[in-house]
Fold this sequence. Notes:
Blueprint: H1 12-25, H2 38-59, H3 61-65, H4 69-82, H5 93-103, H6 115-129, E1 140-141, E2 151-153, E3 157-162, E4 183-189, E5 195-199, H7 202-213, H8 219-230, H9 235-251, E6 255-259
Antiparallel strand pairs: 1-6, 2-6, 3-4, 4-5
Helix pairs in contact: 2-4, 5-6, 7-8, 8-9
Amino acid sequence: MTRALPVESRPEFTRRQYQFAAHIRDPEHQPAPGDVEDRRMKIYRELFYNNVEGFLSGTFPVLREIHEDKAWHSMVQDYFSNHLSHTPLFLEIPREFLVWLENERVHEPGDFPFLYELAHYEWVELALSISEETLEQDNVDPDGDLLAGMPVLSPLAWQLAYQYPVHRIGPDFLPQQSGENPTLLVVYRDNMDEVGFMEVNPVTKRLLELIAKDGNSTGEALLKRIADELSHPQPEVVVNGGMEIMQGLLEKKILLGTKQH
Length: 261
């Protein structure tokens, strides 16, 4: 592997490019090239920052709404100045922002305790909307018997668990403590490419986990396994309730049907 030359050892035009870029990213601490008037540099500073800020605001609308202007722009500028992105793709900016929030951001006294979880929840919608996975699955019977057959989980259904009820957060609800139990959600994309979110209980979560891990068991067998795990005195109650749950999941395209033999 060829080692990159330090900036000071590179040609003059390259050093000027680095200086130009460094000033655009962090104008408070990095001087602009001496022979470029500030009026012109301001155009570039605003153009680059506004592009990034606008994309983040669009991807994280709730995160933006619950922050006052000063706090929001301070956070975005911190990210813009200090995070070394590993992709030039605009659609990857929100994922890079998540990486920065999780691993690099220095905690500020006014930070919300759910900051990262809310950002992740909002990012998932973009991630699913641009996923190249499709609902066109071979060997799936959309009208199959979900109890007698082997249920098939959509590749566009993601299971999520958060400490905070992120789907309820907004200007009028800013929890300072995590919930007693995790918030369990399924985010999914349907056959109209619409992204939806569904809060689920632990039994539904466990059912989806089993379907994802064990594609060779019938729906009835999986539900009986859950009844056994719960030590439920009436397994048929779990089976009947689970059938209703699976039918609802099928309607939302979280389940696609059953495996065809």
